[in-house]
Every structure is written in structure tokens, then in C-alpha cells.
Amino acid sequence: MLLVIKKDYDAISNEGAKLVAEQVRKKPDSILGFATGSSPLGLYKELIRMHAEEGLDFSKVTTFNLDEYVGLPPGHDQSYHYFMWENLFKHINVDPRYVHVPQGMADDVEAHCEWYEERIVKVGGIDLQILGIGGNGHIAFNEPGSSLGSRTRIKTLTEKTRQDNARFFDNMDQVPKYAITMGIGTIMDARKLIMLANGKGKAQAIKNTIEGPISAMVPATIVQMHQHATVLIDEAAGSLLSEEWQMG
Length: 248
Ligand code: GLP
What we know:
- This protein is an alpha/beta fold.
- It has a single domain, classed as Rossmann fold (3-Layer(aba) Sandwich).
- The protein has eight helices and ten strands.
- Helix 7 (203-211) links the parallel strand 9 (192-197) and strand 10.
- Helix 1 packs across helix 2 (41-54).
- The mean pLDDT is 96.
């Protein structure tokens, strides 16, 4: 795991986009894992700019998203399908046939989760996975207590996560209670990881992730075990780290 601390959100977004672009230029048919949430938005914006101005080509790329709310149709403005199309896919030349987001409306959720896992393996595994981090240290929707070896499955969201995400819905009752999420084991199988975090609100989660013991109670701590994980944070998100890290 490599920790990179940059001045602000723009700097981590640009650095993250540079790493994704390098991957796509080196291997045009890369398998990319994408995340939702506010953290990767700047990185997506920069990828869109690189596509428009530098001709960064996504036509051969295959994508897999980390997670999706159960019960929200793809057209719902809070679904992660909608988020990805609005904030990235419709602005780049990705082939819709190569885009995968878990189906929150699947009739047989269990079968769908199995299919999702198999599909990732079938196309050759994820080359580079983008990750955010929840305020409680979750990754994707792997909440505290998730098995570190878990695979794609349905998870109950914690109250903390539902409250964190309530701002996007009219009221708390509308916030879904369940999600389909890649497991921690699924995420760890990606050949490279980029975890993004910015702002003071993530400082404690980042301190726990970087310095804490690896624990299912803070799922993000597992990135310590990944050989090619880059944790890309701004100074505010790194503000609670011990001095050794700040110096390094
Ligand atoms: C949700 C998503 C996560 C994301 C987290 C943080 O729970 N399932 O993938 O990392 O939110 O979101 P944000 O980046 O908006 O802080």
C-alpha cells in the first residue's frame, strides 16, 4: 500500500485520473472498477476532459461498478446506474455493452450476485478498481463486520450509512435499506486499487485505515494487505495521521 497526500481535492482527482489514464493507454481493453459517491467525481471530470481534449479512448474498456441500491430502478436519479451514466459514461466513449452495474431490481438477487462474480472472472479480472471510503470505514457497501473474504452479495446498510446518504433523498424513509455490493474479497482480487478520500469528515476513517489494526470492523483497513493499492488523500483527510506519515 502506498499513501499519497496531496494538497486538496483537485490534486487528488488529477493524480487519480492520471493513474487511470496510464492504465487505459497501456492496456486499451482494461477492466476498470468504478465507485460512486462524491469522492471520485473530480477524477471522473478529469477523465472526461482527457477524453474530450486528449482523445483518451474508452471504447475497448470493460467496467464493473462496486455496488447498487436494492429496489431502485436504473432510471431512478439516486440509483448508482444513473449516477454513473450522468457523471461519467455518457460523456466518454464507453461501449454500453461492456458496462456492468449490479442490478438493484434483480428478481433473484443471489443468482445475480453469483453471475456478477463469474462475469468479472470471465473477462479476466479487474485491472484497476477505484474506491471511496465511508465515514465508518466501509468500502463499497461492505459495512463494519463484513467478512474480509466476502464476495458480491446483498448487505443491510447501517443507520450511519443511511443517514450519510439521506441528503440525496427527500426523507429518511426513502433511503434504501439494502444494497448489492462487491465483497471485500472481490475488491482485493483487483490488480490495482486507488482509494480516494478528501475532507475532515474522512480524517478519522483514514487514520483507522492507515494506522489501525486490520479488522472487519473497519473494512477499509484491508487495503494495507494489497500490493498495489494507492491511498490518495488530501491534507484535510490526512490531518489526524501520525507525524511519520505526514512527513513521508
Ligand atoms: C457510499 C458508497 C461508497 C462510497 C461512500 C462514500 O456508501 N457505497 O462506495 O465510498 O458512499 O461516499 P462519498 O464519496 O460521497 O463520501
